[in-house]
Amino acid sequence: MTELLLASTVLIGIVLLIRGLLGGWMSMRLRYGLWGLVLLRLLIPVWLPGRPVSLVHTLTPPVWERSKPAEQPVQPDLTTGNTVPVFAPEGISSPQSDQTAVPVFRSDTLRTIWYAGICCVGGYLLLSNVLFYRRVHRNAVLLEWGRVPVYQTEDPAAPCLTGLLHPRIYLPQTLPQQRDALDYILAHEQCHLRHRDNWWALLRGICLAVWWFHPLVWLAAVYARRDCELACDEAVLARLGQEARIPYGETLVSLAARQRGGLLYAATGLTTGGRAMRERLNQILHGKRRLWATALALLLALLAAACTFTEAPEDSPKETAQPVQIKGDGGAPTLPEGRRGGVYTFLLAGVSGGGQTDTLLLATYDTAGQTLNMMSIPRDTMVDIPYDIKRINGVYTLSGGGAQGQAALRREVGRLVGFDPDYMIEMDWNAVGAVVDAVGGVPFEVPVEMDYDDPVQDLYIHIPKGYQVLDGAQAMGVIRYRRGNDNRGYVNGDLGRIETQQAFLQALAGQILSAPTMTKLTTLVETVQTRVTTDLSRENLLWFAKTAVFDGVPELRFFTLPCTPYLGWSETYQCNQSYLQPQKEELLELVNRYFNPYQTERTAEDLELLRRTET
Questions:
Q1: What is the maximum span of the chain, computed from C-alpha positions, in angstroms?
Q2: Under 8 Å between Cβ of 366 and 388
Q3: Residue 433 has pLDDT above 90, yes or no
Q4: CB 588, CB 128: distance < 8 Å
Q5: Of 58, 5, 2, 14, whose CA–CA distance to 305 is shortest?
């Protein structure tokens, strides 16, 4: 859609430029024909094989080579069950939060607005044409029956040609008094018929309905309608002879006051008003055609079509300063049977200086549907581990950290959601700061005053409340902050921090996917790779990043694991500890709607949740 919008905008600009520079000397029929290229570009969303002059080849990011993907280890299906039902993309509320899902890129909202505009303009197009036809046909009297019937009507918008399958010419009741005026009018409207201008007028209206938001498209429609009349003037005078210039021009002047209508009418009229009429009379009486101007305009039009109707060939990626090619294991990993095509899952763990996972996110990326769903798993989520404090943030360090800690964490999350994530990404907080610095900072509304000092972790957070542009160090402080030096923090504890983290990730994603940052994709991937531990290769990271950025901006949605807070006694510390107990029914529904990568639905038996025992 973006490429088509760009190509159409440039093509309209080129046609306006040709019209402005050569319009008085070139053939009017060629000048009108140039708008046919614009119409085809706007209404036909297809691309011809690319050439070096392709606009898309020149202005869009490089297309990376994809060859046969390597066999990637992906977790096997856990169970079989019923086919996944189709759910509407709506949020799921949980007991601890009024807003579970936080949408980032509301592509569905923009699409709804676009469709609503199409319906409004399209409805007006239909209604206005029905009313126009009824108006001109009311009390119309048949004057002549030939190939095209000619009627005389009371409507002042006549003369005009209207109708598609059964076209008709309508003339005003009071015709001009000039000699042969009726012949000139009929010759003009019959020329419209030969040019199929009634059909082009309808397509012009459809184009305006589809591209209702684009001001250049409306401007193009205005000039296209003017050039339609000029092309007919030129064709009529070519048939009648140059001696008919003056009486033909007088006929136009006598009908100028009758003009009425709009761009959305699927009808043609002999007259126009104002500046357009002066241009027509000037072309009729003084216009001179030059063969060189017509030839040059035709050449420029062919070059414009070559630039705006072709796309970059996939077998010849654009040269860049640091060309990146995805080969071998850099393609999409092969999925086993039972998996949904193009759907991959990731577990992101942010590890603190003490070895605990302060932040845990489960992500499911649907590369075909371009949706990225992320579920925050609170650090106090209760899990079954061989330790008195049974919280998920202790799984990594209790298992020895490193590869063993990652495997244990992935396994424990798999028990919570019914499937093991495909990939693991472990990062320290410096990785987030490096990404923020790489994109030039992130504008963000800090929700609370943040003052916290922890010499043990070398963590010092001092960030004022309010809107500001965060650098890397500040961003790390915002997403790590839980409570201040006075032991006061978010009202809802860790859930409040999760809400802040989700809002920040929303802002960071918007900054990464902004136009200036997308050109730094390779640099961003390298920044991430040097600061994270993951089983994704550099080529894997590039492929997923390229798919997310260049194959259409994905819709990013955040959720929080549904859970209920409660206090549990600790024998070790001889005090109550805070826990969040997962809610099986809500969690199962959330998983099957947004996170399950399998074709079969997860069942309650797949979720191994630790339950509180009442004593």
A1: 111
A2: no
A3: no
A4: no
A5: 14
